[in-house]
Amino acid sequence: xxxxxxxxxxxxxxxxxxxxxxxxxxxxxxxxxxxxxxxxxxxxxxxxxxxxxxxxxxxxxxxxxxxxxxxxxxxxxxxxxxxxxxxxxxxxxxxxxxxxxxxxxxxxxxxxxxxxxxxxxxxxxxxxxxxxxxxxxxxxxxxxxxxxxxxxxxxxxxxxxxxxxxxxxxxxxxxxxxxxxxxxxxxxxxxxxxxxxxxxxxxxxxxxxxxxxxxxxxxxxxxxxxxxxxxxxxxxxxxxxxxxxxxxxxxxxxxxxxxxxxxxxxxxxxxxxxxxxxxxxxxxxxxxxxxxxxxxxxxxxxxxxxxxxxxxxxxxxxxxxxxxxxxxxxxxxxxxxxxxxxxxxxxxxxxxxxxxxxxxxxxxxxxxxxxxxxxxxxxxxxxxxxxxxxxxxxxxxxxxxxxxxxxxxxxxxxxxxxxxxxxxxxxxxxxxxxxxxxxxxxxxx
Length: 445
What we know:
Elements: E1 32-33, E2 42-43, H1 61-73, E3 79-80, H2 83-89, E4 105-110, E5 113-121, H3 128-139, E6 149-155, E7 158-164, E8 169-170, H4 171-175, H5 189-208, E9 226-229, E10 234-237, H6 242-245, H7 254-262, E11 271-275, E12 295-299, H8 306-311, H9 316-332, E13 337-342, E14 347-352, H10 353-365, H11 371-376, H12 387-400, H13 411-432
Parallel strand pairs: 3-6, 11-12
Antiparallel strand pairs: 1-2, 4-5, 5-7, 6-7, 8-9, 9-10, 13-14
Helix pairs in contact: 5-9, 5-13, 9-12, 10-12, 12-13
């Protein structure tokens, strides 16, 4: 696993109710989103994160009981950080960046917690009320497969999102070790099914189970945005809430959003894709465009659905597409897209994990005894996997990456299917009783 180290952040214990006393200071983080300019002045209701000593004589027993009950039934309020706190925690932004991706991020200590701070530029600044509503909803959401958003700060055209720090390595690095290509910590079928099940449950929660009538979209589903933790190889989804808070999602109602997606054009010149660096294999400069006057939006090649590439509008179905690609990565161990120089043609040729999976399934259906699928599955599993279940998982993934968004399953259905396949995989392990560290081959590849 990666050497990125810190203990997972735990939820703070419920505190006894006490009356709050607001300090009369101009930069009280509970009053507003402080900003270095007037453009970023978003006011929010008080969401204090610290409590002063109470004068218990002024509070009735009933109010104490009510507050205590309330705190036990809801998640903690979002932290509203002052910009000076963010600047101090990052040593005036001179602290070494945590990754080499295009998004600035720092691991630091903020209000006594080990956190990750991400600097994001607003795509479209939400209205004050909408921003307050979204931040409250997202910070109050809890799921074991989602990294928790603690709070935010705003300065000018940037929003600083503060997440709990989770010790682990991203899924991309776990699958593909550049220093040792023949090694992976995910060397068993069950380790990959565990990750896949966690992801399906987490994304299903985001789409359907936050308890609110909101069509939440993640918009950043990719293997490098998934943290794998030890010792059980559980997966946690990063960047929950980024799309809503940064203005990446369409504010139109659901009907209008569906109309836009259903009428999308597939011509490549509709929009210009701004590549979001993903610490993956670099794309040859000959394949990129540098001078376009079309609408720009961010995305990672290989994870973007056809309709997202055409419209720039993220939807729950485009999230499903991204998850389908990650599923194929888990099965094959390969990157979504590869670019290799073809000497015979004198140009770069692109290979897709989706095309490879499609060929593997067609070979299976033509009666090759599963040989095509066996070649598709990651060699680092050393043939120690249930072929029939691998076929079923691949088929679910291919449903998720269907070019027609209306033909893709929703996350509730995907989650149910993956949960069933996880249980079948456990039964396979129990039946085979495979010794740890020993592999075998059921036939030639």
